[in-house]
Amino acid sequence: MEEVDHLAHERRTANFDVDAMKVVWAGSRRAFEIADRVGRLVASDPEFRKDNRTSLGRKDLFTNTLRKAAHAWKRINELSLTEEEASMFRFFVDEPAYVDLHWGMFIPAIKGQGTDEQQKKWLSMAYKMQIIGCYAQTELGHGSNVQGLETTSTYDPKSDEFVIHSPTLTSSKWWPGGLGKVSTHAVVYARLITDGKDYGVHGFIVQLRSLDDHSPLPGITIGDIGTKFGNGAYNTMDNGVLRFDHVRIPRDQMLMRLSQVTREGKCIQSDVPRQLVYGTMVFVRQAIVSDASKALSKAVCIAARYSAIRRQFGSQDGGPEIQVLDYKTQQNRLFPLLASAYAFRFVGEWLKWLYRDVTQRLQAGDFATLPEVHACTAGLKSLTTSVTADGIEECRKLCGGHGYLCSSGLPELFAVYVPACTYEGDNIVLLLQVARFLMKTVSQLGSGKKPTGTAAYIGKAEYLLQCRCNVQRAEDWLNPSVILEAFEARALRLAVNCAENISKASNAEEGFTDLSADLLEAAVAHCELIIVSKFIAKVQQEMEGHGVKEQLQALCNIYALSLLHNHLGDFLATSSINSKQAALANEQLRSLYSQVRPNVVALVDAFNYTDHYLSSVLGRYDGNVYPKLYEEAWKDPLNESVIPDGYHEYIRPLLRQQLRVSRL
Amino acid sequence: MEEVDHLAHERRTANFDVDAMKVVWAGSRRAFEIADRVGRLVASDPEFRKDNRTSLGRKDLFTNTLRKAAHAWKRINELSLTEEEASMFRFFVDEPAYVDLHWGMFIPAIKGQGTDEQQKKWLSMAYKMQIIGCYAQTELGHGSNVQGLETTSTYDPKSDEFVIHSPTLTSSKWWPGGLGKVSTHAVVYARLITDGKDYGVHGFIVQLRSLDDHSPLPGITIGDIGTKFGNGAYNTMDNGVLRFDHVRIPRDQMLMRLSQVTREGKCIQSDVPRQLVYGTMVFVRQAIVSDASKALSKAVCIAARYSAIRRQFGSQDGGPEIQVLDYKTQQNRLFPLLASAYAFRFVGEWLKWLYRDVTQRLQAGDFATLPEVHACTAGLKSLTTSVTADGIEECRKLCGGHGYLCSSGLPELFAVYVPACTYEGDNIVLLLQVARFLMKTVSQLGSGKKPTGTAAYIGKAEYLLQCRCNVQRAEDWLNPSVILEAFEARALRLAVNCAENISKASNAEEGFTDLSADLLEAAVAHCELIIVSKFIAKVQQEMEGHGVKEQLQALCNIYALSLLHNHLGDFLATSSINSKQAALANEQLRSLYSQVRPNVVALVDAFNYTDHYLSSVLGRYDGNVYPKLYEEAWKDPLNESVIPDGYHEYIRPLLRQQLRVSRL
Ligand SMILES: Cc1cc2nc3c(=O)[nH]c(=O)nc-3n(C[C@H](O)[C@H](O)[C@H](O)COP(=O)(O)OP(=O)(O)OC[C@H]3O[C@@H](n4cnc5c(N)ncnc54)[C@H](O)[C@@H]3O)c2cc1C
Ligand SMILES: Cc1cc2nc3c(=O)[nH]c(=O)nc-3n(C[C@H](O)[C@H](O)[C@H](O)COP(=O)(O)OP(=O)(O)OC[C@H]3O[C@@H](n4cnc5c(N)ncnc54)[C@H](O)[C@@H]3O)c2cc1C
């Protein structure tokens, strides 16, 4: 069969070097090559097919995931993949599974909080998957407030053991991924009680299931917490419930890097600084930001390709209709998301650098930048995941009716993605932490303490409070320093306004609480400034490939100017710009859309996603949408028979007026 | 077992008459009584249980729906329900099914477009469900652009028949609900071709399946289009695909109220005015707006009750933690949605009146208000469904992690609701129609033609272009006329700005296209003004019951001021208010939140939803969330066995390092 590329025309009109852009997107030529190779490996292996995922029942779906996870582990070993490649491999398998928590939370927790000895013992087994672990923190009654966890771990000096117990129903562990059906072990967070005193929440390694026959150990009640949002999606994961009835573990299974309990039951602090733990947090959050760019780019890729195929209205003289991608409203919804995908990609890359930087500093005992880094990563986690969740759904709507079919790939992408707004810190709770940092930084301005890093602009408060935007023509908005200053002025002025209003309250804590809705907006402004500035910095780097820089410049401007438009209230209320300038920004935005339009399909091709990874009929590389949609439909279980089950009981009697009616 | 009301305290603190509010919400005492009675009937009938819906596979789910639909029909007959009660009954059964299209689209299409004779013949069968019909308009290649449909209906004067045919793959009918597995008949939209000429799209009644054995008639290929978004959700519906291979139907099955084809094959227009068809459209859209208020209120009810139960942080001296409902950020997300639910309810009620009004006018041959009515209903459909879809997801996020469980009810509510943004007119396409109307109205301002109804304010252009908001204290924002004027000024000025910018373009059509993103904002402003003004009008009516009016006043102000805050850019850029006034509006909003807080649970109780209808563990009337969540979990199929299927194949060999690795 001849293969036709229905998007060939779109690809021809692009005026930049797509291959070079692929490298920029991947981060480096090496990263590109690994991703490309591993992506193809997974895509070409029939064991990893996922097109049937949304129609499987929970049990089949889950067994299927177990099968894939085992096969992936086998392949990773057969191919002797490096750690980086293995993690890339799991990424392309693209199915939430217990292994995510094993590698992503269980192992890092032991690395971060275990002593050298503990690491040696447990990690060597974990690396070989001789044990499978999960991360059991959240309880039925407590998620965000970790300090409120109720599970207890009481030291019994008689037997040199901890007794782990769930004293109430709400203390049941609830949500940990991999817990429900698979994990043999968990890092369990529980209140350490020794010598009659409560020392707060600590981590403990607890074996949950027998390594012989997988049955739960005595005193342990364990199960899955039930169906979650969407078909397929996160239902491949066994998020679990766990109750302890006085379960005993040896003393040396408390993670003792930071605090120790002695044989006698004394709790002592080690001399390892507690701050070291934050390194792990920065690592986890940079991974989440990087995932956000992947999920959003996936959705954008589907919507962009389909929008180039889909035609609606405006046929002249019987010619083809208009591609919906040509409608300005479609562009105004899609292009800022495309720009955001790139923006998140670059800020994610920068966060990787930040992680290395902060790790070095921590090791050198320099904790000065921690509050700023904490605020920055918390804020970026919150902002990028929120925008991505909403953006995926917008992409689905951009596909009209067909986006509602599972075969579009978008419903499952949305359902599997949204919990990122909740786990690893509820997005609102995180933004409030950013706001606290901002208020503190502003309040210290007089004290001579100079804000650094992503907060450095706050040090320019005096200037930023009185500067005026001097945009006079639409093109002036193409100047990065003009954009940067407008975003800095907005962020700073919102923060200072909040600080002033708080200072009017009878007490600062009450003021903070009362104004917390405004504070969220200040926090968002701070985070958007970070992303804009990192995007600008990226675009100012040397870059290979014809037209690559120009496209990224255009996307960077679209990102900034569309934000400006969406938050116009902020910019105008703080007089960071005036309404004439706002209108000019809009005008510039429109012309940027025209500039990007011929490149859109190539700009999503640059993500280099395989059709397997996208798993979307609408997003197919070749754009051959309609025959494939038609083909997919017939695979639905309902189409196994022409006459539906239930016809004889429920349709025929109705049509024939033979439903037995017992008039009351 | 003793029943404890965990929300009793919340209910005690309410300072208004909940029973009176229930009547206001329902629309009248009579409406309340019907809804209350029918709601309980459905809830108490075990045949209608829906708690297992999200874990059924597609086939079981579908058969289950057939069973419920038949049982509902039986009960409706047994109880001799009126048409109004029957439709209420189906609403409380709360499961999308072929009957929705039969009653909601098939019958109205024949009523609106069939001749008296056709109505007599077909409706008598349809009312008794001796035939089951669907509405087959959309095709694989065409949805929004109805005029572009490709299915043909060619008149053959030899046999006095139409030949219905699908000439291309993209002409396959695609999406019609009830089509895939159930309907015996359809109103099929196809291009009428007679005498060698294409007369555009018309409706035809086509039998699809044998009334004897349900098999598709010759020339008809028919099936389900596959899984859609979410577990349960819209997968209870057999949205279908349909292809015709030269299928013949008698001439009198063309719906001939407006156009007729004679025995000789001449196409003639009847003297019935085409505008009459718009009555049906107004009816369908008012129903969608009313559904929006129901879906949003359902989500808000769940989130509000759970937020009063959920506690997180801030325990002092071992006392209980803070209810998350007390956090200002939670209030700032939830309360505007609560206010929107009420706002949509009242504007929906007003639309019912509008429908009656427009029907009378049409019958009297008065078509003058049609363009305004069309713009108003299109806009309100678009706005209320978009806000509701986003609002449901926000409510889900307001429930933290637990909102992600299907047992919260929110994932399914979202998945089943979102297509309302797409069907019956894509929301963006509809807003563009509103924008067209606005531009036309503005352009005719000089001509002496006075805008009426919801567009009357445009007639005050001269005043609204120069008026100034004179709010000086936060309380000034409580004055309805101040709010109204600010919203009128904003809407008018945005529209006039657009009109001016369009007039600068070289041609008006191009100008409209280029500025369409701005035009959407003007359209939204117009629609929000309508809702605000109808809410204000409602609150100004006489109302019984202690405190009822005060609560609605507060909600009305919350609705308006939160919109003002969310669209601050509009208000400031058009100088409809200044930034000082914006800050005062925010201040007023905060104090309104405090005023409403003690009443929130009672305000959602006023919806009078049964636990069956809510089908949410988090939204239970008694607030007994945790034990029930725990109980629900164990019902998951994965918990049928302690050791998961697949353990022996995929987990044990992995733990034991026995995955057969074939080193390459
Ligand atoms: C798919 C998924 C996977 C998960 N995996 C794991 C896992 O592997 N291991 C594990 O231990 N946990 C896991 N979790 C749990 C997750 O970490 C928690 O759900 C998360 O921390 C949010 O906490 P919560 O659910 O208690 O929300 P809550 O804190 O109860 O949030 C409810 C509402 O209250 C608001 N709120 C809470 N506190 C405040 C405040 N101080 N100020 C203002 N508003 C506030 C929130 O914004 C939210 O709107 C997972 C959750 C999900 C959904
Ligand atoms: C659950 C469900 C049930 C349905 N039930 C039925 C049914 O019973 N019977 C039936 O006949 N149909 C039914 N439909 C089909 C439905 O009516 C169409 O999906 C709807 O009309 C949208 O059309 P579309 O899918 O072609 O979207 P498209 O028009 O292709 O939309 C794709 C994108 O293009 C944009 N766009 C399109 N035109 C323009 C324009 N002029 N300007 C700017 N942007 C534009 C849209 O905004 C959207 O972003 C159903 C659909 C769904 C999802």
Automatic annotation (TrEMBL), chains A, B:
The keyword Oxidoreductase applies. Belongs to the acyl-CoA oxidase family. It comes from the Eukaryota. The active site is at 424 (proton acceptor). FAD binds at residues 138, 177. The gene is ACX1. Its cofactor is FAD. It is found in: Peroxisome. Residues 278-439 form the Acyl-CoA oxidase C-alpha1 domain. Residues 17-132 form the Acyl-coenzyme A oxidase N-terminal domain. Keywords: FAD, Fatty acid metabolism, Flavoprotein, Lipid metabolism, Oxidoreductase, Peroxisome. One of its GO terms (cellular component) is peroxisome. This is Acyl-coenzyme A oxidase. Its main location: other. It holds the Pfam family Acyl-CoA_dh_M. One of its GO terms (biological process) is long-chain fatty acid metabolic process. InterPro entries: ACOX_C_alpha1, Acyl-CoA_ox_N, Acyl-CoA_Oxase/DH_mid-dom, Acyl-CoA_Oxase/DH_mid-dom_sf, Acyl-CoA_oxidase, Acyl-CoA_oxidase_C, AcylCo_DH-like_C, AcylCoA_DH/ox_N_sf. Residues 479-655 form the Acyl-CoA oxidase C-terminal domain. One of its GO terms (molecular function) is acyl-CoA oxidase activity. Residues 134-236 form the Acyl-CoA oxidase/dehydrogenase middle domain.
